[in-house]
Amino acid sequence: MLEVNNIEVLYMKVVLVLRGVSLKVPDGSIVTLLGANGAGKSTTLKAISGLLKTEEGEVTDGGIVWDSVRIENIRPEDIVKRGIVQVMEGRRLFEHLTVEQNLKVGAHVRHDGGSIKNDLEAIYSYFPKLKMLRGSISGYLSGGEQQMLVVGRALMSHPRLMLLDEPSLGLSPILVQEIFDIIQRINREEKTSILLVEQNARAALDVAEYGYVMENGRIVLDGPADKLKTNEDVKEFYLGLSEVGKRKSYRDVKHYKRRKRWLS
Q1: Which of 83, 103, 132, 204 has a CA that sits 20 to 30 A from residue 261's CA?
Q2: Domain boundaries, given as residue ranges, for the chain
Q3: What's the first-to-final CA gap in the chain, in angstroms?
Q4: Torsion sign over Cα 167, 149, 161, 53
């Protein structure tokens, strides 16, 4: 369904952020992209959704193919109409609007107004709390409620592929589990493909079928999620566990990375 082929991304025609990144999201699958802060994960999503253009970024090499069509030079609104929607990091809402008004904004690219009411009920079935809060001002919601709302708003556009950027950010462990359970339901029941960017590697690998690990703007490792969970490097530096199951300190990780750079 989606193929990212060896892309490079420049910001302001100077800063090279992505270097030869390639990945695939098969139809109906959940794929995760892991890595530390600044690795280039969010930039990869913005390259796919077209939002790079709003930040003086551009794909300068390689290509992005969606349903056999190159989309790296298509406008963001046209990419949404083709079925790709990004849920950005940080729970971006129209804070002065109510919950239901925010959800209806998600349907603005559609022309079948008669089904919007049914879609709202479907969203409320995934997020019952939003139904209770449908008339509440969105800016006053909790972090978990806002995360539910931005995912629900994305679903209102009937996406075939959702790009989720750090959905667990700032949430309690219980809410993280709830959000990821709902992501799996959406994938299973709506047949929506999902590309999931996460720093919570354990939660991401539990729901994904395939994963990619990114460092310094490059893909350095990929494979089935089950195999990544047992890979010693992933366990040590992304899941925080050593071979004997002891949590590694941040200092140990930094020392390893400095040593790896020196050896290379």
Answers
A1: 204
A2: 2-94+158-226, 231-264
A3: 35
A4: negative
